Structure formats: C-alpha cells, structure tokens
Amino acid sequence: MTARTEDLLRELAPRVLGALARRYGEFDACEDAVQEALIAASQQWPAAGVPDNPRAWLSTVATRRLVDHVRGEVARRRREATAAALAGAPVVPGVASEQVPEADDTLTLLFMCCHPSLTPASQVALTLRALGGLPTAQVAAAFLVPEATMAPRISRAKQRIKQAGATFDLPPKSEWHGRLQVVRHVLYLIFNEGYTASSGADLQRPDLVAEAIRLTRSLHRILPDDGEVAGLLALMLLTDARRPARTGSDGMLVPLAEQDRTRWSADAAAEGMELITRTMAACPPGPYQVQAAIAAVHMEAAGAAETDWPQIAALYRILEGMSPNPMVTLNRAVAVAMTDGPRAGLDLLDTLGADERMARHHRLPAVRAHLLEMAGDTAAAREAYRLAAKRTASLPEQRYLTERARRLT
Amino acid sequence: MKFLLLLHNNPAVLNALTDDQRTAIMNGHGDFIKTIQESGELIVTQALADPANSAVVRVRDGVPAVTDGPYLEAKEFLGGYYLVECADRDRALELAAMIPDAAVDGLGVEVRPVMFSSGMEM
Lengths: 409, 122
Fold this sequence. Notes:
Shape of chain B: flat
Radius of gyration of chain A: 24 Å
Strand order of the largest sheet of chain B: 2-5-1-6
Number of domains of chain B: 1
Structural class of chain B: alpha+beta
Helix content of chain A: over 70%
Number of domains of chain A: 3
Oligomer: heterodimer
Number of strands of chain A: 0
Number of helices of chain B: 3
Largest sheet of chain B: 4 strands, antiparallel
Structural class of chain A: mainly alpha
CATH topology of chain B: Alpha-Beta Plaits
C-alpha cells in the first residue's frame, strides 16, 4: 500500500467510525466493523485502485459488516427489533449523518477512547486503533508485544466502556475540563512512546511521533481556544525538532547540552515557537504551555552556555506550583545548578531523597552524578553514574551512564 | 513494562509434594495463564526440561567445547518462566503472587524487569 493510501485511510477511519457509531450506537461493534473495512480496503485498493468516493466505499463495507454482525447476534439473542431497524437502513451515509459536524465525531471518539474507566495503556491502544486506524498488529508492534497480547486488551477496553454505560455522544460541557485532561495525557503518552523509541533497533515500529502530532493537530483545529491543547502541540513540535540530534551516528543518546543544534529541525521549531508565543499571550497558563515554553527557551539558545537558565529555573518553579512532581524538581535542580552553581542544585536534590516515587528511580542518581561532575567531585560522580546505570532498564541510557562513569576513571 | 517472572525449582521441595499438591499446582498454572491471557498481560511462558538435559558450550580459540550438565551447580534450577507486560512493578509483584509456586514452602518467584531499547536524552 502506498503512503498516500495509508494517510487517506487514517484520515477517513475516525470519520467513518464516527458516522457509524452515531447512527447505530454500539461503539464496540462499529469499531470492529470499521477495522474490517480498513483491512478490506488495504487489500483491495492497491490492485483495484482507490474508489471515486473512498469514504462512501468504507462506510458501505463497514455497514455491511455491522449488519452481518448484528444479524449473527440477533440470531443468538433474538433481538428482532434491532435487526429490523438495521436491515432497512441505507448502506451509504445519508443526510442525517451529515448534520452533525465531523469535528464533534472526532471529539466524541477521542473522549470515548480516553474514557476514564480505562487504564492509560488501554486508552493509548484504543486511540491508536479507532482514531489512527492502525490495525491491532501495528498497535502491538508499536509497543513491542505480540498481537495475541494486544488483541484482548483492546476488546476488554471496549467492553469496559460499554459497562461504564458510555453512549456515543459528547459528554456535557461541565465534564469537558476533566475529560480533556485525560485526552491530552493519552496523546502525550503516544508521543513519548514514539520519541523515546526513535533510536536504533526499533525503526520498524510505526511512527508514533507523527501520529501523536497528527491527532493533536486535529484536536487543536477543533478546539483552537484550548490553551493546553495548543501548548501540548507546541511541546510536541519543539521536542520533536531535536530528534535528528538526539542520537549520534553510533546510536548513542546525545544529551541536550552536547547536541549539534544545527541538526535541529527548523520547520518544527519555527511552528512550535510561533504557536507557544501566540498561545501564552492569549490563554490562561497550564502545565503543557509551561513545558513548551521551557523547550522554546532551549530552542532559542545557540548552546548550553548561552541558554537563559534563570528563565528555565523560573519556569520549572511555576510548573512545580501547577503540578508538584519530583521529576519537575529534578529538572529544576539542573537549571538551579546552571544559575547558582552545582552545590545549590545538589541541595535541591537532597530534598528528593525521601520521596518514595524516586527511591528506585535512576534519574535521581543520574542528575546527581551530573551535578557532582560539575562540582569537580569526580569520585562521587563516578559512583552516582554507576548507581544510575545499574537502576535503569533502558539499554541506551545504561550505555550512556556507563560511558560517563568510565570517562571519569 | 515487561517483566520476567522466574520460577526457581528445588527438587527436594518438589519431591516432597503429594500428588494432590502437584495437581493443584498444575491447575493453578492453567488458571493463571488464562487470567493473564484475557487481561492482555501474557507475552510468553515456557517450562524448561530438567537441567540433567542441559549442555554448556564454551568456545576457546574458536573451538567449541561441549560439557553435559547445567552451567551452575546449585540445589535450585530454573524450571520455567513467564514473560509479561503490565502497568508497573506493583502489578508484576501482584502477578507473581498469583503463581502457585509462590505459595509453596521453600520456593519463591523472582520478578526481574526486562531492559528496553528506548531512552530519554539526559
């Protein structure tokens, strides 16, 4: 299948699913039917050519699958009424389905897939399948698990949504604030999964970074006044702009301070900068906007030494106030060390020692090692790098930390 | 996160079990497999043959030498494993506690994180 056809299917998948689910309810069955239609399209279109109206084609096939499915169900459960209604239903999208704006369908789908009754892993998997149009095998590949592990997760997630009594409608506006928080978090998880995996051995994984940006972009189009959606999109663009420089030719992770900034993507950087500047001027602030602002300060600097560290330290302090979290304090310690010297940063780290969330985490000794190295305490830095290397479960991080320890001997 | 749940066996402990206990353990594994298959947490599980069937291969100066028997001379040996993917370490510990071997006197299930190839820039 060509990349263009793949893009087309991804673009159409949520629209077809939205129209189908709105018309017939039964999100669970509709989602399966659309998946089957997408698979049929990916098998038939390359040989037969893309139909004149690809959306109608997909709707027709998906509706037929749904009718087949419901008939089978009815035979078992004797629900004649539903069958009668469905059997007489037209198989192409009619006037009624066009009355609700597509934007609402996409939003309803996002709220549905990011339903609060699901675990984050299930929310991510379902979002990729229902909104990204990714088949289960590809969702599984994205998380490096077999299809047999992913498939029951997705069907359980759909069952759980059903049990929670969710219908295919937009939740009342009063719930949007909380529900959107979950949606943004899911999109951020998808982005991070892709971003951290963008080195070395996992190149065959689907590009989750592009998918996360695409989905966040469409959410931003639907809700242009939501400052945190805009902030999230800017954060993704500004972080992704560093991607070409974050791994060396040997596949080693390159720390931000040592990255070749000429390799940063200028287009993504410019778009992210413009977006975050505009958003912060117009919207009430939020954690994603602040994180994007931090990424923007890095982006503006010609190098680590030229970076506006007091500004970054101040932004991390604001972020701590919004969402207290030891990882934020850890990052602030680095900025404080750059502004007031390594000892000040180390003092701040000492306040985290008692935090249970950090007890087994490798980031704490990794940052401590870095600051000890800055302070010239080579022996202690080496020990801290070794401890961090022992604690991380990430192979490239372990390589990086072991290498830092070795350099100090 | 992926975890390997390692089932360490001790022949002295296993031999002391009654037939009923042995059957209960077998059935317990069946139930456990079903549970984590349905929850989408099982990646793969294998039982391993007795280490008496093992061979150790060492290549010295390009010449392989094969010796029969296990690598480690110990009372305990690896009897099998579950590779699972679950939300976090707490859930992995919870899964380990569901394995019947964990409840047998003298045995325990080891939970070890599996390394992954993604990483954060530092």
